[in-house]
Amino acid sequence: MAILQNIVVPASGGIPITTGVFGGGDTSAKSNVIDYITIQTTGNATDFGDLVSARNYLAGCADATRGVFAGGTGPSDVIEYVTIASPSNTTDFGDLTAARNVLGACADATRGVFAGGYDTEDKDIMDYITIQTTGNATDFGDLSVGRTGAAGCADATRGVFGGGETTVFVSNIDYITIQTTGNATDFGDLSVGRWGVAGCADATRGLFGGGATYDSIDYITIQTTGNATDFGDLVSARYGLAACADATRGVFAGGTGPLDVIEYVTIQTTGNTTDFGDLTVSRRNMGAFSGG
To answer: Do residues 285 and 53 touch, judged by C-beta distance below 8 A?
Structure first.
């Protein structure tokens, strides 16, 4: 998750770069829809373009200008990208080291990391890309616990993955230093083990929302270690939702139902979510990112 500082409209026109993007997912069928919102406003999402193929259970991350979607049903090893300020269909980027879905992702200013996932023997896989180049992903290291359905978030240097499922729901939180490679280190635990959770962050605090049958949102201070703390609640209990953030606001969208709901919080406060608007299509199991 890129760290955003303010709303900036590109000099050449286009959408503001403090933009949240939601891609793919499923209703009764898999979707190739990509939507976007301007995070500091409220209102319904707008069509952005299409994925190269309809799929769900994918992951997203971004730097300041480029957003990337990876993996998904198939299983897929596809990585594709968009320029965040220019709504359009995705372009091929390269391939993951292993085809998988239900994976997590995070990013700093230059590098994206994808972690865990289903349909591979080694559910502890982490691989990385340099977002402004194209090409195949490279091995990063291993999660402390191999799992599917974990959520990722990051500050400027550290990436964090929380929750997921082995044969049971897990509460594990791991962290990495994004500009190094190596295995993840134990951070602490979520308030409860859950799968299909969504994560986002500002410059210092990470949020994990929903998952399994829970409406709870937890928070951590990314540069410390320790267990997560209760933040507040989503409008409804659900899994398969997606999240993104700018420098002050976190946004959660979609999820089981499927739902078109979009809701937001101010990350440096605590409390329940507030209604933001609706997705263009009700769906769950999306990927998401934001740029800035």
So the answer is: no
User: For residue 44, what pLDDT band results from cuts at 50, 70 and 90?
Assistant: very high
Contact 252, 243 (CB under 8 A): yes
| Listed residue (291, 286, 292) closest to 70, CA to CA | 286
**Which among 145, 140, 220 is positioned nearest to 177, based on CA atoms?**
140
Residue 14 lies in a domain: no
Instruction: Quote the CA–CA distance of 111 and 134 in Å, as a whole number.
Output: 12
Largest CA distance in the chain: 50
Number of structural domains, the chain?
1
Query: Is the residue at 55 inside a domain?
Result: yes
CA angle, 90 then 84 then 75, to 5°: 40
CB 180 within 8 A of CB 108: no
Residue pair 291/17 in contact by the 8 Å Cβ criterion: yes
Please report, for the domain that includes residue 272, its CATH number.
2.120.10.80
- Using one digit for the tens of pLDDT, what is the confidence trace for 23-36? 999 999 999 999 99
- Omega of the bond leading into 16 within 30 degrees of 0 (cis): no
Nearest residue to 254 via CA among 232, 277, 270: 277
**3 part of a folded domain:** no
Range of the domain at 60: 19-290
Using a pLDDT cut of 90, give the percent of the chain over it. Answer: 91
Q: Which two tokens stand for residue 118?
A: 């289903």
